């Protein structure tokens, strides 16, 4: 029996097979060094960065494989193409663009997972163009903060200030 989702199913199965093959043929990160004592710190940092990158990519692939399995399960159950939140039909254009989706655009996960965001982002996203509210509800205006710091001192020589 041919369904309108056969092409998408073939795409999902091919991608799942590709990810499983990649996972099975992935070499674990092994260093050839017996001791890191004589290594330059930058070499150690490079090794660590490569290891973290590999781990992040593996996690991403595992998440993608899980999404593919869920979409294939929905196809088997006959619920693929129906939004899990509102039970409306998901447009074919969305299914072709994001074949693992189980929700319509209105119910797609759009919130940011705050658990994985760094704490520094709250500060980094602040601008000096608008006052920032402190914890004790005082407004602080940072628009002249550079000028205030420069009054205390800077690395500029007297001829730079002319």
From TrEMBL:
Pfam families hit by this protein: zf-dskA_traR (PF01258)
Residue ranges covered by zinc fingers (dksA C4-type): 83-107
Stretches assigned to coiled coil: none
Domain Zinc finger DksA/TraR C4-type span(s) in chain numbering: 78-106
UniProt-annotated stretches for the region Disordered: 118-162
Organism: Psychrobacillus mangrovi
Domain of life the protein comes from: Bacteria
Gene3D superfamilies in the record: DksA, coiled-coil domain (1.20.120.910)
Protein's UniProt name: TraR/DksA C4-type zinc finger protein
Keywords for the protein's UniProt record, in alphabetical order: Metal-binding, Zinc, Zinc-finger
UniProt keyword annotation of Oxidoreductase present: no
């Amino acid at each position: 029996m041919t369904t309108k989702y056969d092409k998408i199913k073939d795409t999902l199965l091919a991608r799942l097979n590709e990810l499983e093959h990649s996972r099975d043929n992935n070499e674990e990160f092994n260093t050839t060094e017996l001791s890191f004592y004589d290594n330059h710190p930058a070499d150690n940092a490079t090794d660590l960065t490569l290891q973290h990158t590999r781990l992040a990519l593996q996690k991403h692939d595992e998440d993608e494989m899980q999404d593919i399995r869920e979409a294939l399960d929905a196809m088997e159950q006959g619920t693929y193409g129906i939004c899990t939140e509102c039970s409306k039909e998901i447009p074919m254009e969305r299914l072709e663009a994001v074949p693992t989706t189980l929700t319509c655009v209105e119910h797609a996960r759009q919130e940011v997972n705050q658990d994985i965001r760094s704490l520094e982002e709250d500060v980094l996203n602040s601008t000096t163009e608008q006052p920032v509210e402190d914890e004790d509800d005082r407004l602080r205006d940072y628009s002249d903060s550079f000028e205030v710091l420069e009054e205390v001192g800077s690395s500029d020589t007297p001829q730079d200030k002319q």
